[in-house]
Amino acid sequence: MSVSGKSNNREEIVDAIKQRANRLEQPADLQHLANAAGGSKFVLLGEASHGTSEFYTNRTALSQMLIEQHQFSFIAVEGDWPSCYEVNKYVKHHPEAKGSVDEVLQAFDRWPSWMWANRETVELITWLREYNRELPEQYRIGFYGLDVYSLWESMDEIIKHLKKTNSPELAAALNAFSCFEPHSRDGQNYGMSAAFFSELCQDEVLQLLRELEAKRNRAAGTHEALLNDEINALVAVNAERYYQAMVKGGPDSWNIRDRHMVEALNRVMQFYGPSAKAIVWEHNTHIGDARATDMEADHMVNVGQLLREQSEEIEVYAIGFGTFSGTVIAADAWESPAEVLRVPEARRGSWEELMHEAGPYDQWLIFRGTDTEVFHHTYGHRAIGVVYHPHYERGNYVPSVMAERYDAFVYIDRSNALQPLVPATV
């Protein structure tokens, strides 16, 4: 495919970027952007890869400003709920929290562990814990995972807590777990059995979710341990659907996953109350409105689209991230070791290459409120996954109407690989 969906006047778009972009030389330079986003209910912070240091450090800077100055309640990320809940307990000084940040991040043991078990995340978590230190318990900032992959881990956590508290819902949990048990804790095995042999566990996990949801409602939503059980049950319900859809192919598995992330986010928002405000860290492909890309033609939705559809326009503020060139942590195949890979210079005519042409330095710009026509044209916009092949980049460019996909954009001219706790292969 072409990196640009239509023939655009190169000089015009480069000039428009020059006029609206702001230099990014230090974290304080993001202050005006944080202020622009701070009045929203949901601020969505993207990334063009899961392995770029500057995406994490700049999202941390923005998150600190949003929490300190604009009263945001929690950070929700593209990560597993059980692992992220260990972080949540640690940053909130919970009596059952792990003893150190490195010990906490060992909970991220599912590939690709480098997404959260990295030095950049250590800095964020350390700051959150210190910020929460003097706050009353009900005002402490939370940290949660929104993803759908942790079916067995979530079931383990539910059973452990229900046993500890001698809860009557334990019978429903054990019944659901026994249904999944023959599949050797392998989602694909379960998906094959469910999709082609009708060996379903759907009724069991739905019953468990109903019981745990009712339990939290009876408690008036005040106990976070009950929220933990409820979201873990929600993961089991939607993971069951996800793994069925995954083996069948098509857009359904993607849509189930993103709808789950929004449902989990909404339940956390409900727990925090009517004045809650959320910061969401996810890949650009999740937080940038799918309707402004070719995802719509493939009948795919995402978190950014769904949140905009359920909310007033001013309640959602999406900030995309991208880079012209540098290095990244990724792998050459699924579940292969992490490597430091080269990110080649962006293809000519792509959004990243045009920003580089406008100024070969870090910068950011706001789209919201602009009527600049060229920002509403289609450009190729690079997306790097956890599996990445720098020599075959043509398919990594998503046709995007930038001013409709995002409200703002942060551009890193030459970026560097993330720093995993377990060093990657160079």
UniProtKB/TrEMBL annotation:
SUPFAM superfamilies: EreA/ChaN-like. It comes from the Bacteria. Gene3D superfamilies: EreA-like (biosynthetic domain), EreA-like, domain 2. InterPro entries: Emycin_Estase (IPR007815), Hydrolase/PRTase-associated (IPR052036), UCP036794_erythomycin (IPR014622). CDD domains: Ere-like. It holds the Pfam family Erythro_esteras. This is Erythromycin esterase family protein. It comes from Paenibacillus lignilyticus.
